[in-house]
Design goal:
Layout (H helix, E strand, L loop, with lengths): L1 E5 H11 L1 E7 L2 E6 L1 H19 L3 E6 L8 H5 L18 H11 L2 E3 L5 H10 L11 E4 L10 E4 L9 E3 L3
Length: about 170
């Protein structure tokens, strides 16, 4: 089984969990983070997902870091503009953890494309380099991916196990 993993979410969460705030004075904070802790957290999440789906290999999808190149913005310029400024804040180690992920894992990142679109493409493409479609499982918490036919796993709903989404 090949796990097709939405790594954007895991990177963000692992980087966030590895970040600490120290209050030096009332209302004044200093932030620090541990890259080894973030890396171990990330690796543990990937291992847990692979074990849950019975995967022997994985491809981790990342969103292109050039937000201005996002093809969805070309179709609809205000794409994601309504998100609050707070939700756009990234943890200190976000970029460093992404780079480490690219260096350590089998990552698929395409210019102008988001991770969920990459996962949908990998899950449904007839590529000789990939195992048969019934041996690929999309691993993500993104409910939008439940529109893609094939096997799925949501680690936030692990009790559901691997489930099948049929074609429309």
């Amino acid at each position: 089984m090949l796990a097709l993993v939405d790594a954007d979410i895991i990177i963000y969460e692992a980087a966030h969990r590895a970040q600490f705030a120290d209050e030096w004075d009332e209302g004044e904070f200093a932030f620090s983070a541990s890259l080894p802790n973030a890396q171990a957290d990330f690796a543990g999440c990937i291992e847990k997902i692979m074990k849950a789906v019975g995967a022997t290999d994985s491809v981790l999808a990342l969103t292109d870091s050039d937000r201005n190149a996002n093809f969805r913005r070309g179709i609809y310029p205000p794409y994601k503009n309504k998100r609050s400024k707070a939700s756009n804040h990234r943890p200190l180690l976000y970029s460093a953890l992404r780079q480490w992920c690219r260096e350590t894992y089998n990552v698929n990142q395409k210019h102008g494309i988001e991770a969920d679109d990459t996962l949908g493409s990998l899950a449904t493409a007839d590529l000789a380099a990939l195992p048969p479609k019934d041996q690929r499982v999309i691993c993500s918490i993104d409910k939008d991916l439940d529109t893609v036919p094939g096997l799925h796993y949501n680690w936030r709903k692990s009790e559901d196990g691997v489930y099948f989404v049929g074609p429309p």
